[in-house]
Amino acid sequence: MMTEPLNTQIRDMLDSIRQAQNDNQLPDIQEVQQFTRIARTMPMHAEDNWLAEAEDFAHLADQLLQAVKNGDHQDAVLLMDSIKEAWIFISEIAPQQNF
Length: 99
What we know:
By secondary structure, the chain is an all-alpha fold. The protein has helices at residues 6-22, 29-45, 51-69, 73-93.
């Protein structure tokens, strides 16, 4: 089990998944599965002022997992862009919180 704060784990995984995207490849399915598992825990750690965003983020992660499972590169790219924007927004709402 990882002992890093959740936000650090998510940031590191996003960087790794984006690297595959930058290489014009689908991300590794196991990596996306792990990312999705972690993203699903975000709503449990979210404060009321960003709970809806955490739930949306988890939903986007689920959609990314489905796109990767289906080999849908175009959807995966679009979803990664949405996940990136959602992550930036969450980071601005909860900048001091290690969730």
